[in-house]
Amino acid sequence: PIFNLATREDHIAPPKSVFLGSGCFGGPVDYVLAGSGHIAGVVNPPAKKKYQFWTGPEAKGTLENWLKNAEEHPGSWWPYWDQWIRSHDDTKVKARKPGANRIKILEDAPGSYVMTKV
Asked: PANTHER family attached here (predicted)?
């Protein structure tokens, strides 16, 4: 199963492109459209009570038609995503420890490459 999230005002991954991309997977896809843009629409903790998101029928046809049939929900999409994950497998695992004695840690995050100018 695929949880395919788009944000309504995204200029990097436009919602129409993400919607059309939903047809490229071989299994079930849950297309979700979040309010706001590329960063604010994704990084939207529930406690902030900002924006909204839409859920709807299968992502077929056009985004415009999908949106006409979609349900708008207030706030963050995170609780919906959490419920979606748990509906597929609610098993919890401990977070891994960086390196875990198996992988050599190169340097602290975010890494020196982010400071490289080209």
From this structure: POLY(3-HYDROXYALKANOATE) POLYMERASE SUBUNIT PHAC (PTHR36837), POLY-3-HYDROXYBUTYRATE SYNTHASE (PTHR36837:SF5)
For 49, half-sphere exposure in the C-beta direction (CA atoms, 13 angstrom radius) is 0
For every one of its 118 residues, what pLDDT tens digit does the chain have, with 9 covering 90 and above? 999 999 999 999 999 999 999 999 999 999 999 999 999 999 999 999 999 999 999 999 999 999 999 999 999 999 999 999 999 999 999 988 877 778 888 888 888 888 888 8
Taking the C-alpha atoms of residue 108 and residue 93, their distance in angstroms, rounded to an integer, is: 24
- Does 39 fall in a domain? yes
Q: What are the Cα distances from residue 104, in Å, to 47, 76, 100, 107, 111?
A: 37, 36, 9, 9, 14
Measured distance CA(51)–CA(5) in Å, rounded: 15
Provide the number of structural domains found in the chain: 1
Domain with 42, as residue range(s), is 2-90
Does residue 84 fall inside a structural domain?
yes
